[in-house]
Request: fold
Amino acid sequence: MKWIAGLGNPGVKYEDTRHNVGFMVVDELARRWSIPVTQNKCRALLGDGRVGQHKVALLKPMTYMNLSGESVRSFLDYYKAELGEGIIVYDDLDTEIGRIRLRYQGSAGGHNGIKSIIAHTGTQIFNRVRMGISRPEPGMNIADYVLSSFAKREREPLQEMIDYACDAIEYALDHPFESTMGKFNR
Reply:
């Protein structure tokens, strides 16, 4: 089973924030693939269906960002899914808005959702799509920034980035992740 987990925070309050760009990607994949993400399982909203020859699950952890690993671990255990068949999508301060960066291993880089996944899976080796949200202006609190909405001028690059990330994930269903990285990392 292929699976994609988009990280974010549940609730209307966080819906349109930078920290929820992972949820935005899962929502777009759900739209493209006609897979409703409405099941409440594994401490997440979950949807599953078929994309081409693949059985695919879409996951939006409802544990809040800092505990994302609890939901991912629950999903892996319940479905007997392989960590290597998944892709984690999350926001990245060190990548400029409009750009994505694919990796298959590495540290959490200060991202608490990724720290939680590493802690609950016991490894730093898993496929990931880092979605650029850029750094805040000097003096702005990081927590306030990631929980803020995108500015009007950022909307177009945001949508292009979401579309590009979805294209990369679709490509990854039929190709090795390393090949996907070569094609989609700019």
In short: Helices lie at 21-33, 68-79, 112-121, 142-146, 155-174, 177-184. The domain at 2-180 is CATH 3.40.50.1470 (Rossmann fold).
